[in-house]
Amino acid sequence: MIEDNDLRKALDETMDWMSDLSPDELRQVYPERRVPCGVDFIWEIGGTEYTVISHFNQNSADDIVQKVQNLLENKAV
Prior knowledge:
about 80 residues; alpha+beta; two-stranded antiparallel sheet; 2 strands; about 15% strand; globular
């Protein structure tokens, strides 16, 4: 359980840091990053199991960096 708390803390800190970056800064930090095909996962929070299934539209006007930025800024995507 301690590892889980440490992981959550590290993820929260990373997301807080990333949320302050502009899309251009994110691209500079992660210039070679692409979204992998299998990014689905299951996570249990407070006894409830959440399943996240991803789908990426190749014809979308926004790229993944913009979508993450929108999520961090609580904009509708």
